[in-house]
Write a structure and sequence with these properties.
Blueprint (H helix, E strand, L loop, with lengths): L2 H4 L9 H24 L6 H12 L5 E3 H8 L3 H14 L2 E5 L7 E5 L1 H21 L5 H17 L1
Antiparallel strand pairs: 1-3, 2-3
Helix pairs in contact: 3-6, 4-5
């Protein structure tokens, strides 16, 4: 269904570039809502889930410095601090001062965080697989390249 019909627009969207950007934004919002629907029953937000995934897959020994995590999450530094504060209170991560530079905070995935991530990752990946099921591997690769091209243009 064309986006203008899906959103019940009264007039056609002006320009194919504008329509493409609106499609990306709307699809992103729908994916975000779906992630919320899946993760909320586990007590997780999408940012918390992403933080746990970064600690498990994009760090050494499930530990990283707070600044690096913030760079990978693409949120500002103050948001990362609050996010880690809440996750630390929940027992999913531990924060310590770096042994070599006490100005640097190290964040480590806890056993409780790893156990929660195992549950969340299972339902999340099952849902992602279901959403993308109608796409061939070649179509997924082309979609990724097209979105990379959009990001390079910015």
């Amino acid at each position: 269904m064309p986006l203008q019909d899906e959103l019940h627009f009264l007039t056609p969207i002006e320009g194919k570039s504008h329509e493409a950007v609106l499609n990306m934004l709307y699809t992103g919002k729908l994916l975000e809502k779906e992630a919320y629907r899946i993760l909320r029953p586990l007590g997780l937000t999408d940012s918390q889930f992403n933080m746990l995934m970064l600690l498990k897959y994009q760090s050494e020994n499930q530990e990283s410095d707070q600044t690096r995590l913030g760079d990978m999450l693409l949120v500002n530094r103050s948001n990362v601090t609050g996010l880690i504060d809440r996750m630390e209170q929940a027992g999913w991560v531990e924060r310590t001062a770096d042994a070599k530079d006490r100005r640097v905070n190290r964040v480590r995935l806890t056993k409780a965080g790893a156990e929660l991530l195992e549950k969340a990752e299972k339902v999340y990946l099952e849902r992602i697989d279901a959403i993308m099921n109608d796409f061939s591997e070649n179509e997924i690769n082309r979609l990724c390249r097209a979105l990379e091209k959009v990001r390079r243009s910015m």
